[in-house]
Amino acid sequence: MSDDEITDDDEITGEIEMIFTPRPEALASRNISSDDFETALVIALEDRQALEDDEDLDEDELSSFEEMELEINGLTYKLEDLADIEIKGDLDSLA
Q: What is the pTM assigned to this prediction?
């Protein structure tokens, strides 16, 4: 049996994990502290969750995580410009 085969003892959770790693050089060049980045990211993720919970939401209205906007020190930045985004886990559950 290969390492990637699922056995009856394996637990299938369907969970995914998103990891946002701020790029120090991107933050520094924009005079953004890591604390300001983290605060803005938490707010943006909470706002996104509220949108996802809206039953009337048209999925086309929801931007990708890369395009998600963070407001920091009165300016708006795309998440992809400030951090690396990594997705791990059961990616088939996203389909």
A: 0.73
